[in-house]
Q: What sequence folds into this?
């Protein structure tokens, strides 16, 4: 029983699957050659991350596929409803990367408020000739403590981010499908944990109240942005937008216009509308902190993702019979 992990799998996940009797291949197959390779090699499972897609055409072409797995949270790069209608099992690992994504968002936020993203670009070029002017340029940083973070989408990642933010003295409110109160456990190293109540409000209630807005929503079924020109208009002047969820959750044209006008002070982006070719004016903007879709790219998260995939595959496909 052969598995193609086309976007890779952690060593621990590969080891667990091989110990159970599966053959795991991690050699990358280009998208246009994927169906032919799956059929030729007799793969019964395809594992992907963000780079590889499993659309209807691939599913129809590969009658031997029994399972498609996504190493990560969202499954919008898989036609999962169609796959399941054809009897193919679709799995993902929604809990494994929550902490890693939350930490990346906090890293962007810490960097933006002190201009680290921009100073790291300019110091190598100008630091030895314009040191004093750069010092003045970045002399208007702000502190995070006491400010308010709005989390749009309050699932596992949103709640993990809330715990980090609360631990840093940041007030947190959230927007989700059902309003109310959600208790968040904030761990204090060496001292246990405390419960903190977070208010859940509607999107339009949250936006005007926050200094920082962080997106943690799935791709919308209609493809529309959650944050566009109208939503930006009701935000605080000088707010900061963070997106480590899905490209397109924030309208990129509206964001650039707001950055240029000063309505939005900065943005931290890990995801983009046109990956892997994000628009040049966005990634060159001096007010944008950038990472190339690496929210889950920590050793710990990839270990958890790999072992969780291995467990789910064994649960759904059983253990191969050894000859």
A:
């Amino acid at each position: 029983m052969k598995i193609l992990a086309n976007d890779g799998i952690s060593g621990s996940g590969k080891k667990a699957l091989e110990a159970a009797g599966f053959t795991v291949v991690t050699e990358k197959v280009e998208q246009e050659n994927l169906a032919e390779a799956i059929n030729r090699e007799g793969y019964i499972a395809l594992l992907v991350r963000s780079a590889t897609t499993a659309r209807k055409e691939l599913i129809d072409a590969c009658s031997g596929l029994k399972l498609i797995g996504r190493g990560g949270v969202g499954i919008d790069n898989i036609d999962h409803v169609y796959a399941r209608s054809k009897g193919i099992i679709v799995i993902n690992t929604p809990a494994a990367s929550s902490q890693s994504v939350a930490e990346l968002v906090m890293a962007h936020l810490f960097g933006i408020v002190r201009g680290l993203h921009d100073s790291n670009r300019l110091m190598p070029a100008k630091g030895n000739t314009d040191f004093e002017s750069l010092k003045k340029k970045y002399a208007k940083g702000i502190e995070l403590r006491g400010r308010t973070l709005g989390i749009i989408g309050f699932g596992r990642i949103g709640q993990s981010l809330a715990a980090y933010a609360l631990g840093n003295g940041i007030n947190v409110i959230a927007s989700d499908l059902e309003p109310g109160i959600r208790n968040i456990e904030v761990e204090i190293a060496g001292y246990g944990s405390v419960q903190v109540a977070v208010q859940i409000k509607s999107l339009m209630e949250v936006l005007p109240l926050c200094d920082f807005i962080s997106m943690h929503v799935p791709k919308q079924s209609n493809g529309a942005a959650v944050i566009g020109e109208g939503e930006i208009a009701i935000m605080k002047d000088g707010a900061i937008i963070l997106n480590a969820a899905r490209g397109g959750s924030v309208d990129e044209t509206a964001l650039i216009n707001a950055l240029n006008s000063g309505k939005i002070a900065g943005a931290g982006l890990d995801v983009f509308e046109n990956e892997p070719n994000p628009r040049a004016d966005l990634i060159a903007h001096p007010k944008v902190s950038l990472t190339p879709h690496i929210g889950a790219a920590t050793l710990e998260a990839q270990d958890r993702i790999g072992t969780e995939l291995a467990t789910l595959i064994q649960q759904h496909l059983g253990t191969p019979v050894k000859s």
In short: The CA atoms of residues 110 and 144 lie 8 Å apart. Residues 98-290 form a domain with the Rossmann fold fold (CATH 3.40.50.720). The mean pLDDT is 96.
